[in-house]
Amino acid sequence: MTIPSRQFFFKEIKLFSSCGYNKQDFEDVMGLIGQGEQYRCVNKSNTLINGLPGKFPGYETMVTDRISIEDVVSKGFEELVNNKDDHIKILVSPRPLL
Amino acid sequence: MGHEFCGHVRSAPAGSKFREGQAVMADPRILCAKCHFCSKGQDHTCDQIGFLGISGGEGGGGLSEFVAIDEDMLYALPENVSIDFAALIEPLAVAHHAIKTINSKLEGLDILIIGAGPVGYALACVLRAENVKSIIVSEPTIKRKEQAKAVVDKIIDPTSENVGEACRSFTGGKGADVTFDCAGIQVGLEAAFDAIVRGGYFVNIAVWEKPVRTCKLRRGSQPRY
Predict the structure, then answer these.
(1) Confidence (pTM)
(2) Chain-wide mean pLDDT for chain A?
(3) What is the CATH number for B194?
(4) How many domains does chain B fold into?
């Protein structure tokens, strides 16, 4: 990785790094996620954002598939090897899906 | 395997704050609780950090039938939060940590996210709660662009558009106040440095696979702004 030093210098870009989360972050998110009303609003492209209660509208949309643990190799790992760009999160359930 | 998981309590020791059957979310990290960083609230940089579901060991992980976990690392799910989505709390915590790095309020700012994978997407959700002015994302793949529509204001395709120019045009000529790099690749970093406003912030959340260098400050060799 190479940092373009002219832009870094002349634009006075402030460079930070962020690694994982700490206990306080986890506690914050656990507190925030249960707050608020059913979330309904539109973004600037007029798409309806319709979330569960909580401070983080739309987070449920991250789930691109749900599979049973029986299928974790074919529909989980192999799917991510072959079609990585089609997914954000595949959730795996230990029980057969209804 | 699997470090992002939630579940129900199967058995809790006497005196525990949890009861059998209770819906919980796990903080999967294994911390030493002794090092300087653990004692200073910087446990994300613990000397011995490990994860249930990544580091091996006997505790299990998201793909095991049962998990043995310290109750300090378990959180009861609020009643109005569905367990069907609770595993997403882990990536949301990554995003929540990232937005605190710059120690400055994000309200009213134009934010650019490089890459709409899991972390980029979680960031957009968390930023929405901070009342930022706009969330712009640079993402080349079709499915992820479709998904991102639900939570961002502007999607730039870096394979067909100039990210810096598209960003400036969307922000009245200014550029992004803060850029979060969730891709960790050279072209993404260059696009971010071009798109950032003067005096703006670059926050890396990706794991860079190669050492970082700066190129020489030779006149005319690189764009200045």
Answers:
(1) 0.89
(2) 82
(3) 3.40.50.720
(4) 2
